[in-house]
Fold each of these.
Amino acid sequence: MKLIYRILVRLSIALLVLLAIWGVLFYLAVIDEVNDEVDDSLEDYSELLITRALAGETLPDHSDGSNNYYFLSKVTPAYANTQNHIRYSDEMIYIKEKKETEPARILRTIFKDKQQQYYELTVSVPTIEKQDLQEAIWNWMLLLYITLLLLILIINTWIYYQSMRPLFVLLKWMDQYTIGKTRTPPDLQTKITEFQKLNDAAVRVVDRNQTIYEQQKQFIGNVSHELQTPLAICQNRLEMLAENENLNEEQLTEISKIQQTLSYLIRLNKSLLFLFRIENGQYQDPCQICLNDLIRTQLEDYQEIFRYKNIEVEWNPQNNLTVCMNEILATALISNLLKNAFVHNVSSGKIHIETTDSHLIICNTGRHEALDSGRLFKRFYQGKTAGEGSTGLGLSIAESICKLYHLQLRYEYNGMHCFHIE
Amino acid sequence: MKILVIEDDPSLREIICRSLEKERYITEIAPDFRTALQKTADYSYDCILLDIMLPDGNGLDLLKALKEQHKKENIIIISAKDSLEDKVSGLNLGADDYLAKPFHLAELIARVKSVIRRNHRDGINLIEFGNIQIDPDHFQVVIADQAIELNRKEYDILLYFIQRPERVINKMTLAESVWGDHIDQVDNFDFIYTQVKNLRKKLSEAGATAELKAVYGFGYKMTLQSV
């Protein structure tokens, strides 16, 4: 959910509640004011009538054309004692002249004359229709709510996008950031402290990551380089030992085994260095390379080497697949994928290669289960079929090369293990 | 033949010297840049093995200095750096060969022999062992004055052995240098046996006086036939 939506929804709800409360209070205040005014006039009117009645003067007509009414009736003392002597109420009354019922404010006053006779005077004044008032207030509130809401939303959105602009610049910058690539820090052009702080923090974190990444990369590179000399010494001493005429067959076999392990170690080191160089972007000078030719020559070698596995290779080169790559990297990519297809294959298995002018697919038979595609390209991930001497770096190298040239390397299992490059 | 070994690691230096001395070369050593500069100024050598990373300087600077003094020594760079750029820059500065660590001793000897041979025979590059002659520039093999046809792999194998006669070669090492890096993770070396068997057959049919002897459990060795 975008922040702006969250803000707008909350504003709308808050506004709705506030305006509702305000509407109710406004209504009550208006009614109160109206009643107050009407009550005052009723009081004056009834006072006038009572004074006249007590003075024995003639009372005016029941209605004097002002829609004001009164009734004067005798009541028993018992009734008078049980009732409040001044009572206000809202009632519907029938107006004869108009021949309709209207809401009216009514004042009942009980008084007694000199003969101790109790009278009740009922005075009524037509008053405003409360339903109408409620409706009117409701309608205006609704209109106000919608107008206010629209205005507030528009203004808020505008302010939000105006003031959050530095944040968007920063977000975009962080989105585009890839570790290992140096980039200029974002230009926020802001005087707002929070954004400046956020920017500083982001740049600091990125810089620190960058440094750690560089150091780690450098460390791996240095270790690999430093290992070269001791590895050379080990290998060469073993070779000199093997030259010794006095060695028997058993000892020679042992030496051979040590040499095999050592050559694995050397290969591992070389692969790490290779990865390090690919990721360092040390392989430049791309040129047009025909992958079909590469596949053809390498396939011959692999078929010879893996003849004992009796693998059937299916390949109908249709179009020439040419890519713009560094030659060493292209060779390494094809070599790793092909080798992978041969090494992890079963005896009398199959390899299917498909080349079109936009993609390359290499499929091979193998174990009847899909591999974990999430971890497949991770360094040192070893499948269950990996034999002794496998560095676990081959696919990682292939992926690094593809990444460098923005090619997509995907794994798929459809009975055969397939690697797609697009 | 005198060879100067410029290498800071004492152990590696000792191995290289022992291995060269076995081939009847006379070796001199220089553990650092200063000594190397002094020795090259005072004496002349047939070949110089030069390590790039020295404790007190860069081997490439030494190479530049030597070329500026118009020294005719053959120089083989031995370096832990094996990237293409390093090789190109080394060779551009006038080195005759570039060998990345870790290397096989047999490889080193073959390279030393090769550069010295190139220098001494004015560019005619023939490798001989017994009555086998190989002209690597034209990929020609002559046995007992008769040219014979070999397929590519057989030729590569023969060339590899003839540059390292009388040395025991591990079959892994052989596979690595003939078939390239493809052979890691291979647990069956039948493809080597097949090629070596064919090569042996062709050699004996052509009447070669050298043969490929199997060293059981290890690899092969090229030796002269005992009469």
Amino acid sequence: MPLELIGSISDGLCPERIWHVAWHPSGDILASCGNDKQIQIWAKEQNKWVLAQSLEGHEQTVRRIAWSPNGKYLAAASFDVTTSIWENTSSDPQDIEFTHVSSLEGHNYEVKSVAWDSTGTLLATCSRDKSIWIWEMQEDNEFECLSINSGHSQDIKCVAWHPTLELLASGSYDDTIKFWKDIDGDWECLYTLSGHTSTVWDISFNSTGDRLVSCSDDRSLLFWKYFEGADKWKNVCKLVDHSSRPIFSIDWSHLNDKICTGSGDDSISILEQDKSASTADSEQYKVTIKHEKAHNSDVNCTRWNPKYPNIFASCGDDGTIKIWKVIE
Amino acid sequence: MSQMIMNNTLIDSIDVFDIIRSIKDPEFPNTLEELNVVNEDLITVDNSTENDYCTIKIYFTPTVPHCHLAPTIGLCIREKLNLLLPKKSKIEILIKPGTHQTEDTINKQVNDKERYIAAMENKEIKKLVLECIEETE
Amino acid sequence: MSGEDKFSSILKLTDLDYINPSQICIKPVEIEKTKPNGTSKIKIENDGSYVEVSEDGTEKTLEKATITLNDCLACSGCITSAESVLITAQSVQEFLTNINGTKTIVVTLSPQSRASLSNHFKLSPISVYKKLSTFFNQLGINYLFDSSFSRDFSLLESANEFVARYKKTIDLPLPMLASACPGWICYAEKTHGDYILPYISTTKSPQQIMGTLVKYYFSEKINKKPSDIYHVTIMPCYDKKLEASRNDFYSDIFNTKDVDCVLSTSEILDLFKDKEIDFNNLAETEIRDETFLNYDRANDKFIGVQGSSGGYLEFIYKYAAKELFNLDIQNKDIEYKVGRNSDFKETSLMVNGEKIFTFALAYGFRNIQNIVRKIKISTSTNKHCGYDFVEVMACPSGCINGGGQIKSEGGIKDNKAFTQDSENYYNDQLMRDPQNNLVVKEIYNSWLNGYFSQDSNTKLHTEYHRIEKSTNALNIKW
């Protein structure tokens, strides 16, 4: 079997529904969050995943978590309209001891996503209130609001930073993807990508930041390429009806360019570019593995390990976290 | 009277209708069946997928074409099914075509997993929904 | 043409986007349930009315649920700014209907609207005023006032209030936050009502002070009842329409609002189009009556203060420096430290190397967020937040860039330059300290019994109310 299950976390340790998993930059620690209002941090002990710490404080579902690039901070977006910031205050660099250091308030409705930029100084949050807030971390763990971006006409589901530039992308219930950049102190919407016919659930940049892939409620995947000459993002590949149900999650590996997706039909797929079929203007991507019944319910999130190639984690509505290996 | 359906039984549209017919309307002192909001003919159950889940599709008819509580009725239907169906099924709840002014908008909202789960985390909405789906006799 | 994007962004994000109340406004209407059992059907007649048909066939026409603007303001579950409710109640059409009655019509023009008209027509502020006079005379309007006049009261009261807070002669905390911007006030009441309200200055805005002056001081001068005057203001934003509709600015006794109708600058343009007015070629009516105008006859120029959002920071800073430390400060002595963006700056008064007080200017939602956040933290840790006064305005660049101002023909790209041009027209005026306004002085003596007196507190100050989130499940939008 091309997809091997190499680890699993479940059976009473996890909440009913796990929304998101995020790898620590070291690749050895995994954080998860869900409807039990907590954030769980898992570490490997001998060959088993054990709970290293449980972070409490949110009053409703924690929807998404994000590690800062240096792994010292963890941000968590919650339906309780706040975003919490946690710092690893352990004196031992190998140890896990996260303390709550700040609470970002201001969104009027549920916060859906949070993301750190590549430098670890900027944080973006997005919400059902249709706005994206850009925050800058100051000394003493305080945060200053740099911008409140309006533009989407509906609930914003996800935000993702470009891997190297100070450029933010967002996906929304309004079916579009928007790009945002700071121009002379004011953040403006540079590009709006239309193509999906329903909610955009997740987006992911490739490692060089000139490609973006998006997945949607419309059951399709769209691949976008940045054309520098024209200063435009264009759709170069469509995989429609990739799934029989909404596709909730997508991630583009920065180690080997593979793509993993998680879907509402309980399956996980791996995709790669079909180089033989691609031209300059039209690229082809194909599904190399479709693993049905990956979970016993909707797959909410799939994320590649940042250090170990071909390893990724998934989580779902069945309350389990699974670690997989792609066998080549 | 609805009961937990046994795990190894296949569900059909009558089972689904049996669960949702007695849901009370949030506004009027009647059940969804009495108001003709739900109807057995407008329910389809598909057990044919290779996966372990079954797909349920329910069309409902709001009481008036601009009924602002249509999304809430959708919420009640889903909650009650989630409580009483034995294993997770994929449930799609839609407005019967032509019976509401903003049916596309409502269909999207009612089937957005993040939205309906967040809605049920709101104290007031949860209370209202639980009252509507409560079995009284 | 919808006014949907015209309210300040702070209001738009505060609790919901524009909803047409006739479709989605869900203010619960009480229905008498006479029959506990049985079903009834509801049919819709051709005229759109709803008729309930009960089982025995009897028909009853159901009452149309109506909401008033006050319902909207009080309810935070739906909207503060129900576009269609406001636009209907304070539209150009309403204005034209009301000026044909028997009431005395008073129009108050704001200096920001005047500057916007100046920039659009490329006329001096004086020309704009004189041509407007001609136009309004044709419509039968009796008086055209300038809110720069009532702003002098607002500045004096705010400055005195600050000094009282600083000296702790009144039990209200620092930092004091400016209160002239209704977008900011609405946001504060709905989102931070549990801790921020005591910091907000109780002084009324220039619009509302003019309302009080017109209906209660001027009315007596012209021998009219307050309700016999129809008072219209021309303002740079739509949020001012909300302000005029507040219950606090309505008199039960006299059955009249302080300000009956607010028209934005761009609505005045619509009015010109509607009446087919060639504004540039209108004759100019010389200014004979200087009532409630800040006008210098010798130079034929208007008089004002530095700062196109009212100049609160500069005036209060100088006034406080004098009152508290006997220092004479000029505008040019005030040095600003600009923050992350041009809409945030601060300045500190130094005496003998010691920082005495720090004033800041925070325009736009993101800067307001940071101020509010700092205050919240200082409230809970009992530490000074770093500021003693903040001039808070909801719009980036302040009132000159309000949502109701006339926009550049070139679109958003040219807006910054266009706004700067409006600012230049705004500054085509003579500067005068409000303390030197003799008419204002006279009114303080005869009608108010001095700065920040008991009378001026009754007439020139207001209150704020925390707005609770709706707990009615039928109202909650998810």
